[in-house]
Write a structure and sequence with these properties.
Largest interface: A-B, 22 and 25 residues
Order of helices and strands of chain A: EEEEEEEEEEE
Strand content of chain B: over 45%
Shape of chain B: globular
Shape of chain A: globular
Helix content of chain B: under 10%
Number of strands of chain B: 11
Oligomer: heterodimer
Distance between the termini of chain B: 37 Å
Helix content of chain A: under 10%
């Protein structure tokens, strides 16, 4: 059974610091990797996706992928209180596949 | 443009009843997926439909069924409700890119 594991947290980070969120996955055939943000009582919204080894940057967010180690991470620079949410890691076995396997999410709290 | 719309937003049912949840994808999106999110967990894939055909099914019992209509809207049906079916049910649609756009969900409570 494919598994995606995340530390459930809560992870507390001071405002302005870097928040680091980690995710490991069990299926070596996974090809596409996603980070979603979910505010309490709301639906998930996509922050970034990555499918090549290395780093991908978008504004304050950087996704890092290491397929050999089956590890994906999300860095949030200059953390803001509005970044306080649950961050969900999701993987799929090919680009465009809508069957995503999600982790349980990491709850992030930014402390003003 | 309107996003993915789901109805109803909240629903309360009793054990053994049947429920139908509805979803309208973003205009132009032909693919719809359904996910179940139990409190404290990540979403779990239930179904995917594309052009009215089932393209994927998750590990859910046959009490769960779905269909997609010619206008690409979709319904999720759950029969013989159990307490454990209480969850947020999310519908998502996709065009040709990687991004799944989620609706705001239907919160189902089974008493």
């Amino acid at each position: 059974q494919k598994e995606v594991e995340q530390n459930s947290g809560p992870l507390s980070v001071p405002e302005g610091a870097i928040a680091s969120l980690n995710c490991t996955y069990s299926d070596r055939g996974s090809q596409s990797f996603f980070w979603y943000r979910q505010y309490s009582g709301k639906s998930p919204e996509l922050i970034m996706f990555i499918y090549s080894n290395g780093d991908k940057e978008d504004g304050r967010f950087t996704a890092q992928l290491n397929k050999a180690s089956q590890y994906v991470s999300l860095l949030i620079r200059d953390s803001q209180p509005s970044d306080s949410a649950t961050y969900l890691c999701a993987v799929t076995d090919y680009f465009g596949n809508e069957k995503l396997t999600f982790g349980t999410g990491t709850r992030l709290t930014i402390i003003p | 443009d309107a996003g993915v719309t789901q109805s109803p937003t909240h629903l309360i049912k009793t054990r053994g009843q049947q429920v139908t949840l509805r979803c309208s994808p973003i205009s132009g999106h032909k693919s719809v997926s359904w996910y179940q999110q139990v409190l404290g967990q990540g979403p779990q894939f239930i179904f995917q439909y594309y052009e009215k055909e089932e393209r994927g099914r998750g590990n859910f019992p046959d009490r769960f069924s779905a269909r997609q209509f010619p206008n690409y809207s979709s319904e999720l049906n759950v029969n013989a409700l159990l307490l454990g079916d209480s969850a947020l049910y999310l519908c998502a649609s996709r065009s040709h890119g990687a991004e799944l756009f989620f609706g705001s969900g239907t919160q189902l409570s089974v008493l």
